[in-house]
Design a protein that fits this description.
Layout lengths: L2 H14 L6 H14 L4 H16 L10 E2 L10 E12 L6 E9 L2 E8 L12 E12 L2 E6 L4 E5 L18 E13 L6 E9 L2 E8 L12 E12 L2 E5 L4 E5 L9 E11 L4 E5 L14 E2 L3 E2 L4 E11 L4 E6 L1 H8 L3 H9 L5 H12 L3 E9 L2 E9 L4 H14 L1
Parallel strand pairs: 1-2, 4-6, 10-12, 19-21
Antiparallel strand pairs: 2-3, 2-5, 3-4, 5-6, 5-7, 8-9, 8-11, 9-10, 11-12, 11-13, 14-18, 14-20, 15-18, 16-17, 18-19, 20-21
Helix pairs in contact: 1-2, 2-3, 5-6
Length: about 400
Amino acid sequence: MDYSDTADRISLKVKAKGHEADTVKIEGKLRRLVEEFGVPPAEAERTVMNELAREFSLNGLGTAAGEEKSLNALMAGEWATVEAKVVSLTSAPSSAIAQSGILADSSGAIRFVVWAKANAPLLEHGKWYRFESAVVDEYRGSANLKIHSGTVIKEISRDTVLIPEVTPIADLTPGIGSVRAKVIQEWDTTHDRMLQSGLLGDETGTVKFVIWKEEGKERLVPGMVYTLYYAIVDEYSGRYSLNLNTATVIPEEGDIPVSSGDTRFSGALVHIAPGSGLIKRCPVEGCNRVLSRQNYCPVHEIQPGFIYDLRIKGWLDDGMVTKEILVQREVTGQLTGISMEQAKELAENNPLGMDEVFLRIRDLILGRYLSCSGREIDSRILVNSCEFLTFNPEETASLLNRAGGAS
């Protein structure tokens, strides 16, 4: 785009209507719209012309502010006008963004971003607005609405009640989704900014969820059922996950059946990772994080009243594929024959402390062949049952015969 020529053309149109427009300012606005906000050149020109038409109260200078559309009809790369309700506001990830969150209408919902340079009025949660000259782009596989300096924002009065459609977990797609699900797993957090992560399930399947630390955000209770409206559905390496920071969280009574979604994997236990054996967890309600050797919780600091737990973290290898396994207390006891009370006694009466439990578990099962069943998330199996594989002479003979035939 030749910004100078376009600015001159716009300036001449304004002059023909009896007004003077600064070509340098026009060129600067065009450059910002195209290079900073990704607005197509033709739409950037129309946006600037609309601004000048409003500034000088001119008719016949600008063009329409894009076709008015419902949110589910928006396509990346277009310029549109929408009327929508602010159903969620989130903390801005950078200083370049003034506001971000979720907009919704009766057709669906979409993420939005208000650029700081837009100098737009602050949007309020729960209110309806008309957005003229907004730009639609694509972010992580779904439509995203960008509000820039050329966007006209008007608060409007609406009494429309929005009731989002709940989607089965198996039918989720990237974008915004609403689910009714049960918290079936809570995981150790892997990032200081993470409040909680784990696994949600319904009758159709399971999906990972994450809640980031943010004012007013609370942890979900394992075993509880929730309706979660307007969650962000992200996709990573072909797997979906729900970001619940934008979601409206409604606790529900009762229970729902959850699809097991279990997978079975067999192989040799080739590695037992640190953090296996007897561990200490934070006793603060809803935390459950693993403590350091000094009883330190990354959120609640020193916790002398810790809670013991027993688990195995390791690698299972079938000769072609290696998968991480996480074996919880009950199954760990079944595999090793070491109960929680025995593990505590070993740790408290042995010079090596908890390391003694780790070493005994390692000596008992490292190198053994296991068949484990559980939910698989990102190549990690959350084991709910596991058994040792024993020598099968018939299978061995069959393999030997097959090898002999090949030679």
